[in-house]
Predict the structure.
Amino acid sequence: MIAKYSKYLALNLVKLSFISAPFCCITAHADHHSDKFNFLMAEANHQINAQHDQETTQRFTAWENLMHHSLGKTEQEKINLVNDFFNQMDWVSDKELWHKKDYWATPIESLIRNAGDCEDFSIAKYFTLLALDIPFNRLRINYVKMADQQSHMVLSYYSSLETAPLILDNFNKKLLKKSERTDLTFMFSFNSEGLWLSNNKMIAINDDNSLNHWTSLMKRIEKEQG
């Protein structure tokens, strides 16, 4: 049902498409968004309750409440709430959590484990904000270098395309403008539209420059939907 790595996925089916299989029969163009949202979350909670412990269920309930009560808020309020919500997760390396050198988890995988590394924090925030109707062209996942040259990933939010973005970070949890994050060197960024190099030149993601982990993530999100 979901087109492989497409704007359609990011703009429409991201509306909680990463929850579970029964949702595949629901189109992204439903007229009553709130009714669809409530149904999706009810079904999600039913499956989480059946498969996971009470603590996990409570996290998904908190996520549901965040989503439900944030739809009418301003973009800035949504940014604050989503950043704070996911920054409650524990930072755990991929090697320890997934027994892999590098693994990009889906939002549902991160919530079940209540943990992840910087990529997982950024991905969960990105998809949740898309589901809260933040336009995808205002969000970019950034690959950066920290002051100690350690690789890191953050999410940037542009209140407008003419302004400097705010940085959503799981290490420095205070929302700061990109210009204030002098501890970070921005290497490249990407979203569901394409890939931006350090000179802000945009190129389309293709077989030559494909982000393999991103493509794998999209496939697993597709499988979660069924």
Observations:
- The longest helix spans residues 33-51.
- The CA atoms of residues 18 and 221 lie 5 Å apart.
